[in-house]
Amino acid sequence: MFRNFTLRALEFGLTFFLAISINFFLPRAVPGNPLQLIAGNAAPQLGKERVEALRAQYGLDKPLSEQYVIYLKQLARGDLGMSYRYSGGKTVVEVLGENFRWTMLLVGVSLTLALFIGSALGIWSATQRGNSSDLGMLSFIYLLRSIPPFWLAMLLIPIFAIQLGWLPPGDSFSIPRLHGWENIKDVARHAIMPVIVLTLAYLPTAFAVMRAAMFGIMESDYIRTARAKGLPNHWVVLKHGLSNALLPVLTAFMVDLGQLLGGVTVIEAVFNYRGIGSMMFEAVKSRDYPLLQGGFLLFTITILLLNILTELLYPFLDPRLRRAT
Amino acid sequence: MNPRSLADLNRRLGPTRRLARLAAWMGSLVLALMVLFALFPERIAPYDSTERVALPLQRPEADFLLGTNDLGQDLFSELIAGTRASLFTGLIVSFISVLIGASIGLLSGYLGGWVDSLLMRLTDLILVLPFLPLVILMSVYLGPSQRNVIIVLAIFFWAGPARLIRSRVLNLRTDTYIEAARALGAGPRHIIARHLWSGVRPLALVQVVLVASASILAESSLSFLGLGDPSGKSWGTMLYFARASGAFLSDAWKWWVLPTGLMITLTVLGLGLISYSLEQRIAHSVT
Question: Which of A23, A245, B4, B49 qualifies as a cystine partner to A293, CB 3.0-4.6 A?
Answer without folding.
Answer: A23
